[in-house]
User: What shape does this take?
Amino acid sequence: MFMVVLSLIGSVMLASVCIGKLPEPEVNIEVLHRPFICHRKSKYGDMLLVHHDGYFENGTIFYSSRRNNEQAMWLTLGIREVIKGWDLGLQDMCAGEKRKLVIPPSLAYGKEGKGKIPPESTLTFMVELMEIRNGPRSHESFQEMNLNDDWRLSKFEVKEYVKKEFERYGYPPNDTLQENMAADIFEKEDKNKDGFISSREFTYKHDEL
Ligand SMILES: [Ca+2]
Ligand SMILES: [Ca+2]
Assistant: This one.
């Protein structure tokens, strides 16, 4: 009798586990190579330069940036510029690191598929991160632009930043153009029109991840 009760409890527990939430789909990440020197790791908002090869589950290759002799690709991490599996799988990576990502369909091209990718495809990517740069919307860029500690950008600060960018890229100074660019940035970014760009207005939101 005792055993029966025990096994009954067991099967009830098992049933409740099965009925419970389905596990969240995950990206399977395997680090194939990590460089000895790693100055910084990739995070949301960074710009990443990557080479990649893409494979179907049966091992057929469907894309290779190197074999196609193409340039490595720049992407901004965490803003769904690429498939969700990449946004998740390319975090905390060092420049020079190589990873194998196995991405379920729900984090890739899903039920519909896309182009060469059939519906419900699990995809494998061999990715090499070539370079990391601060994204235009990164926390670091904001701090660089914010000359005092008030956590918001004034028109003056934005204009100073535009001026510095001109110098950095070796363009001759052009006051009118710089003024217009700063005004354009404000037009787009000062969402609540209070005359300042707050850090919240400036940085990307990652709510969907
Ligand atoms: Ca400021
Ligand atoms: Ca504002």
About this structure: Residues 2-19 form the longest helix (18 residues). The longest strand covers residues 123-133.
